[in-house]
Design goal:
11% strand; 375 residues; elongated; two-stranded antiparallel sheet; single chain; 6 strands; alpha+beta; Sufe protein. Chain: A
Length: 375
């Protein structure tokens, strides 16, 4: 079964190459396939596609080749820490404070994706990436296990999967090689059907098992117990999605996006009623510019963004972001404030939003670019 891990490594490197070349930017159809695969068969994104997961796996392989013995988190601590990524997800989803967003801006997974697509993150963010990479020499997937909120999203989606890893109890010799090989610290030897939310479908357990067909990846038998489980999980999932969409529409924010570092473009605009403000607002950076709608581009967190700036009577009256690839939770924070501030001050010399500085600067630079092109 070692061939299986070789194939997975090839797939991981292929997806890493795709990420580097930028093919995944705004690639909605690919993301729909990933989400569908997750719902049906588990968190394939984490085990096969995620660039930072791949980097951690490669460094783990390097550690083994150097003779570094892998360590396991003590069970008593592990059982507590596995909930931290879900806590982070809840905090980011429901409590959009500056402190939380400032902390999450150092997410090594998102920053590595940013780096691979040609956008240089801060020095502090790079240090965090290196710190978790070095830790992977000693522990398998340290970030994935305890801190990745993106992995938490995919694991929740995979809770209703119809295909999973199953153990034939009669064939098992209880050697526990499957437990030792699992990078997510799951005790595979104690399950018959692997429903653990930590599972990333890496199939290391299947490869490590010495008895053929003891561990297999196949359709879950639809018996009485699984019917109850699916009914409970499906109900919880549907209610959760409905609740999130209700929250989304009431706040005009997209808070539960399943992505690989980018989200679909979401045009949002800020309008000021010109007749009401024309007397109090004087021409600023739009002075000397003819009436019209001007397009400009700037660099956001995950790539370029495009804005349309409307100028009337040498006054900026409207700013609309027509295209972007930033995470919406961050982008919405910037877009709620920056266009309004620019219009009120008639200047691009405005403060960025704490916790959304990249998106803020992207909007500011795009407006500057639009005004420069108008001249």
């Amino acid at each position: 079964m070692k061939n299986l891990q070789r194939k997975r490594l090839v797939a991981q490197l292929l997806f890493l190459l795709i990420s580097i070349t930028g093919f995944f930017i705004n690639y909605q159809s690919t993301m729909m396939l990933i989400i569908l695969a997750t719902l049906l068969g588990g968190a394939f994104f984490c085990g096969w596609i995620c660039p930072f997961g791949t980097i951690q796996d490669l460094i783990s392989r390097l550690g083994r080749s150097l003779g570094i013995k892998k360590k396991k988190m003590p069970k008593s601590i592990h059982k507590i820490l596995i909930y931290t990524r879900y806590i982070i997800l809840v905090l980011v989803t429901l409590f959009a404070t500056d402190l939380i967003f400032s902390i999450i801006s150092y997410d090594p997974r998102a920053n590595l994706t940013k780096l691979l697509t040609g956008n240089v993150p801060t020095i502090a963010a790079v240090i965090v990436i290196l710190a978790f990479s070095v830790t992977a020499l000693f522990y398998d997937r340290p970030f994935c296990n305890y801190l990745c909120m993106e992995g938490a999203k995919y694991s929740l989606m995979s809770s209703v999967r119809l295909v999973t890893i199953q153990r034939e109890q009669d064939k098992c010799v209880n050697c526990k090689k499957c437990d030792k090989s699992c990078p997510m610290n799951i005790e595979v030897s104690k399950i018959n059907q692997l429903t653990n939310l930590q599972c990333i479908n890496c199939f290391n357990c299947i490869s490590a098992c010495p008895i053929k067909k003891t561990l297999t990846y196949k359709k879950v038998p639809f018996n009485k117990s699984t019917k109850k489980r699916y009914l409970k999980l499906s109900t919880a999932l549907v209610l959760g999605v409905i609740a999130l969409f209700i929250y989304d529409f009431s706040t005009n924010q997209s808070l539960f996006n399943f992505d690989i570092g980018q989200n679909e473009p979401a045009a949002q605009e800020v309008n000021i009623d010109v007749p009401e403000v024309s007397e109090s607002i004087t021409a600023g950076e739009a002075e000397g510019i003819s009436d019209g709608v001007y397009t400009g581009t700037g660099e956001g967190y995950n790539g370029s963004m495009t804005v349309e700036v409307t100028v009337e009577n040498e006054i900026i009256t409207n700013i609309e972001v027509t295209e972007h690839s930033d995470d919406r939770s961050w982008f919405n924070r910037a877009n709620k404030t920056i266009p309004k501030s620019i219009i009120e001050d008639q200047s691009t010399d405005v403060n960025t939003v704490s916790g959304a500085s990249y998106s803020s600067q992207g909007i500011i630079d795009a407006v500057k670019n639009a005004l420069e092109s108008a001249r």
